Amino acid sequence: MTSPAFTLPRFYTAFFLVIEPIAALVGAFFAHFRQLDYLRMTHAASAPANVGTIPLSTSVVLSQLANLYLLFTINEALVLRSTSNLRVWRTVLFGLLVADFGHLYSIKELGHQVYWNVLKWNAMDWGNVAFVYAGATMRMMFLAGVGLNTESGRKAAERAAAKKAK
């Protein structure tokens, strides 16, 4: 049985179908075409001195990462845009939520402060942490039905209203 079509609120449309796919393309561009910049923004102290000293294995891995960013873009900009099936949306966004947590886990070696010390963040940290927090939050809200005219969305709205009334 397929899920009924649904109307996507504008804030989800803007984030999932426009903002996040563009951000992923930017990440893909830097990971593939600006590898030294990508490495320096990730961790300047361990980055190579110049492009010619990037190990071949690191270059390959960064290009593979760029490919995954491109897949991320395609999933949101094309796959989600091609369907109004709520089950497909939930499945894709759940997979991306799991990836969000994996992405956050992958930067643990930079130290625990990378997760919260916004005063020390550079552009990469804003993308690796803040933007991932935002994406994960949007996905959790969607999966909880917040803003959706669905049964779970109505229940989430009722819970939020009940909390405010207290």
UniProtKB/TrEMBL annotation:
Reply yes or no: does the keyword Membrane apply.
yes
Instruction: List all membrane-crossing ranges.
Output: 12-33, 53-74, 86-106, 126-148
UniProt cross-references to Pfam families, sorted A to Z: DUF7704
User: InterPro entries under this entry?
Assistant: DUF7704 (IPR056121)
Listed A to Z, the keywords are: Membrane, Transmembrane, Transmembrane helix
Report the residue ranges that make up the DUF7704 domain in this protein.
6-147
Instruction: Specify the superkingdom.
Output: Eukaryota
Q: Any idea what this protein is called?
A: DUF7704 domain-containing protein
